[in-house]
Design a protein that fits this description.
Blueprint lengths: L1 E4 L15 H11 L1 H12 L4 E9 L3 E8 L6 E6 L7 H19 L2
Antiparallel strand pairs: 1-4, 2-3, 3-4
Helix pairs in contact: 2-3
InterPro entries: Haem_oxidase_HugZ-like_sf
Protein name: DUF2470 domain-containing protein
């Protein structure tokens, strides 16, 4: 999975959509906020992350945004899947791998 920080919105040239991605994004942001926070802490290398959420999700990538409790500016990063995914299960699997890596790296 590739990652990149960005300051501009992602282009609208997206791959064909998987039905229900808005619901999946909402579920991830509400039910798995702690997991997203782990990814943000691990990626941003700053433990003062107080909020993390997915702002954009499709079958080729997702954008993770996070906010800090200190004076650090908010950040966001695009996580690009190595290949275009065709199911919500595949997307969840990739995000779960990032969480597992964060748990290992952060020794949680």
């Amino acid at each position: 999975m590739n990652t990149s920080k960005r300051s501009h919105p992602r282009s609208v040239n997206k791959s064909p959509s998987i039905k229900g991605l808005d619901l999946l994004m909402n579920e991830l942001n509400t039910k798995h906020a702690d997991c997203l926070k782990l990814i943000a802490v691990n990626t941003g290398e700053n433990s003062s992350v107080v909020k993390s959420y997915i702002s954009d999700l499709d079958n080729s990538s997702f954008t993770l945004c996070w906010e800090y409790s200190d004076s650090s500016p908010n950040e966001e990063m695009i996580f690009t899947f190595k290949k275009s995914l065709s199911t919500k299960t595949e997307i969840m699997s990739h995000i779960s791998e990032l969480v597992d890596s964060a748990i290992t790296d952060l020794k949680v």
